[in-house]
UniProtKB/TrEMBL annotation:
Residues 4-68 form the Ribbon-helix-helix domain. This is Ribbon-helix-helix domain-containing protein. It holds the Pfam family RHH_4.
Length: 72
């Protein structure tokens, strides 16, 4: 697995950065594409639903994991 890489996202008009490994960025992008949404829109949804104690990067990783587990 690669080291986390920081990328910028726009969530509801506000810029933020998230650090994820390339493998998670690729999976996250693939999920967004399959659902016909942008990465920013999907990240905003995850951000709105996450528990405030968790960080956005962790919430995205858990979303990706759950998404793929649901398809097994």
């Amino acid at each position: 697995m690669s080291r986390p890489k920081k990328r910028s996202l726009t969530l509801r008009g506000h810029r933020t950065s998230v650090s994820l490994e390339d493998e998670f960025w690729e999976a996250f992008g693939a999920i967004a594409a399959r659902e016909g949404r942008s990465i920013n829109a999907l990240a905003a949804e995850i951000d709105a639903e996450r528990v405030l104690k968790s960080g956005l990067a962790g919430a995205i990783r858990l979303y990706v994991l759950a998404w793929y587990q649901a398809r097994d």
